[in-house]
Amino acid sequence: MTEPVRILVVGGGYVGMYTALRLQRQLKAELRDRTAEITVVTPEPYMTYQPFLPEAAAGSISPRHVVVPLRRVLDRCRIVIGEVHSLDHAKRTATLSTLATEEEGTGHVRLAYDELVIAPGSVSRTLPVPGLADHAIGFKTVEEAIGLRNHVIEQMDIASSTRDPAIRDAALTFVFVGGGYAGVEALAELEDMARYTARYYHNLKPEDLRWVLVEATDRILPEVGEEMGRYAIRELRGRNIDVRLGTRLESCENRVAVLSDGTRLPTRTVVWTASVRPAPLVAATGLPRDERGRIVCTARLTVDGVDHAWAAGDAAAVPDVTAGEPGTTCAPNAQHAVRQTKVLAENIAASLRGQPLKDYAHSYAGSVASLGLHKGVAHVYGRKLKGYPAWFMHRAYHLSRVPTFNRKARVLAEWTLSGLFKREIVSLGSLEHPRAEFELAAAPPPAPKDPSPPDGTPGEPAG
Ligand SMILES: Cc1cc2nc3c(=O)[nH]c(=O)nc-3n(C[C@H](O)[C@H](O)[C@H](O)COP(=O)(O)OP(=O)(O)OC[C@H]3O[C@@H](n4cnc5c(N)ncnc54)[C@H](O)[C@@H]3O)c2cc1C
Questions:
Q1: 3-state secondary structure of 88
Q2: Taking burial as the number of CB atoms within 10 A of a residue's CB, which of 181, 245, 342, 427 is the most buried?
Q3: Which family does it belong to (predicted)?
């Protein structure tokens, strides 16, 4: 019996999941005859549908429904929950750690393969801004989105119960850096949620909350074009959101965000969504990289000059053959990532069968963005929409795109229910510390304390 062709897919995001899913279909016979096998190595057992993260942060979709369980979808693949640390492509081996290797203390393990699909995506591109690494949060994962939701509501609870105006102001100031769709949608959805939530506080008004969007260039949402970007700025400013164009975050030490225009904003919330860079693994693959650190690919989605290696998505520099200018590469977005996986899987199957490969060609169709409940902006196939129609289109588009019928049905059910009932307004931040209650119960009783607290009602000025 011949040895099976071992296909290793690194990453279980858009590219990893869709490539493995399409390969399952393309290589049905080979997988059944055991002449091919597919292994997916990914740190999480799920794929995250990132465009739904802002709605998850707003509480319109529950966190479980923005992720897709890989074991269920990729039922003919072997799923390894772990992290690839390096590759030796000449020897066709990947070095990785899994939860078990960490538990056993055995160090890293090697995995041999014949064909490599490298799709570790991107991470936030940070700059050496003082205090950024210690105080800011990103917005790329479901953990960050839910953590941020809990944090915002918690800040409102702090502001409502403090008697110190400085603490109150800092708690109610939210600074977002980066005006792409991740930053704008996250800010717009959270502001909308917090505005609604404020009505349930006896001493908070929506106007007390200060939302600031800091963008280094002179526009936001470049994905929807200049005109719609200007509309988005007007929409946000109309909601009292402070949009600062041509401005950079200079520092965020000691809970003060200092902007390049000299503004100092005491705040406990700095959200960094200013651009992405390839995942750190890419530098440890030995594969050719471009000046932005992405893997250099051909239009056939092979790694340039390297046999049996394929790449796509945010970590790959794929030539945009539809662009007029030579040397243009595809932007890092889901629109390209998903379409690339179709060509990628077909090309892998074709190469195994000795058939010719195809080029990836897709001209950018435009984009849709939500600016909160019933508000949005869109520029798709030359059509410009704003307000409710754009928001509706955003929902319809993403409902059609979120993987699996199961997730589509659940998300639709949630949207329907949230139209009938009031929004959820609680912070479940304590979920991040599930043992806290038990630790308190198990701890010895504290020694009695002497000083009695000052009189007064929480949230009212001391006097
Ligand atoms: C908030 C937000 C909203 C967005 N909205 C839109 C939108 O509306 N439209 C649009 O077109 N695009 C959108 N995007 C961008 C889109 O989500 C990305 O372009 C897309 O996810 C890229 O796919 P990918 O497979 O390359 O990376 P990812 O989907 O990020 O997947 C990478 C995977 O690799 C794994 N990985 C990383 N390192 C390793 C390692 N060392 N070993 C093993 N696995 C590893 C990661 O854990 C992850 O599972 C949005 C992004 C964000 C953050």
A1: strand
A2: 181
A3: Belongs to the NADH dehydrogenase family.
Considering the four listed CATH numbers 3.50.50.60, 3.20.20.70, 3.30.420.40, 1.10.260.40, the one that applies to the domain covering 5-124+277-352 is: 3.50.50.60
**Which residues' Cβ are closer than 6 Å to ligand 1?**
10-16, 41-44, 50-51, 53, 83-84, 119-121, 139-140, 181-182, 279, 281, 313-315, 332-335, 337
Ligand 1 atom closest to residue 332's alpha carbon, by position in its atom list: 19
C-alpha 325 to ligand 1 mean position (Å): 26
Model pLDDT, residue 8: 98
Q: Given ligand 1 and candidates 10, 39, 50, 113, which is best to mutate, with the most ligand atoms within 8 Å of its CB?
A: 50
Residue 463 has pLDDT above 50, yes or no: no
Cα(311) to ligand 1 centroid in Å equals 14
The CATH number of domain 132-274+366-420, selected from 3.50.50.100, 2.30.42.10, 3.40.50.970, 3.40.50.1580: 3.50.50.100
pLDDT tens digit string along 154-187? Answer: 999 999 999 999 999 999 999 999 999 899 999 9
Which residues of the chain does CATH 3.50.50.100 include?
132-274+366-420
The label of the residue with tokens 């016979």 reads 29
What pLDDT, on a 0 to 100 scale, did the predictor assign at position 456? 62
CB of 66 closer than 8 Å to CB of 142: yes
Binning pLDDT at 50, 70 and 90, where does residue 443 land? confident
In DSSP terms, which residues pair with 370 in a beta bridge?
Answer: 376
* CB-based contact 187:220 (threshold 8 Å): no
CA of 82 to the centre of ligand 1 (A): 17
- Give me the phi and psi of 169, to 5 degrees please: -65, -45
Q: Which helix (H) or strand (E) holds 327?
A: none
The total of other beta-carbon atoms located within 10 Å of residue 29's CB is 9
Two tokens at 269? Answer: 């919330």
Confidence of residue 453 (pLDDT cuts 50, 70, 90): low
